[in-house]
Amino acid sequence: MASASSNQKWNMIVDVAKCDNCRGCFLAVKDEHIGNDIPGYAAPQPPQGHNWLEIERKERGAYPIVEAHFMPVMCNHCDDAPCMKAAKNGAITKRPDGIVIIDPVKSKGQKQIVAACPYNAISWNEELQIPQAWIFDAHLLDEGWTKTRAEQSCAMGVFKSLKIDDAEMQRLAAKEGLEVRRPELGTKPRIYYKNLHLMTKCFVGGSVVAHVNGVEDCVAGAQVVLKQDGREVGRATTDTFGEWKIDRLEPGSRGYLVEVTGAAGRFSLQFDLGGESRYLGVMKLGG
Ligand code: SF4
Ligand code: SF4
Predict the structure, then answer these.
(1) Which atom of ligand 2 lies at the shortest distance from residue 120's CA?
(2) pTM of the model
(3) Spacing, Cα 51 to ligand 2 middle (Å)
């Protein structure tokens, strides 16, 4: 059992669907670091200009099907970290527990480290002439804490810190559909996101109506099938307002055909997706 625990490393799961942009986590990180020197971990964060944890925002769709989503982003504590490759004199190290630390003394003057992070997670401290990033609250975890300040501050339960071995984390990621930011970079982040599609993918939606006894009314329970190049890629049923939505489409993808079928008749429409989600408008069954 002891040998198993020595392989355990820190990971964080962030659920995009739960974040409401209250910014409590953002403030918790500032509270932890502004004016606080933590030797061996991090020098004080300047009062202004540094956001070691930031909240990204994404708006999707158009009236009446429009959504806003929020996503905390910070250093990913990558296993194959470009910042480490850019650092000289061992200024950045990966601890056995997976956490990446920029040494506040050895990194002095090494501004090249800032540009090396493809996630823009590193800030430059002009006064101290050092690069700085979110340290996963390593100083607190080393004292026995099991949750970061950001996690403790979040009333929505967005964050979940996990110290488990890598194989178990990969199993969990596969089971829960977790993703990392920009996997194509090959940096192997330790921050995993749930529902990342809310930030990175598009949806398409519409409203279905029909004339009943001379009155236009919304149609609930109509079947919507989405095809791309003749192959079905999504399916939905209209809700009580006649609205439907199909998600997780690639931005910029093309060649779609949507077919709507209800008791009052059929409707079909061909379209391409631009860079953003689309509301396809009102679809009238039966002409
Ligand atoms: S504290 Fe939680 S809900 Fe608030 S911004 Fe941070 S992650 Fe989102
Ligand atoms: S997110 Fe950036 S700063 Fe953090 S480990 Fe990865 S490359 Fe380095």
Answers:
(1) 2
(2) 0.93
(3) 14
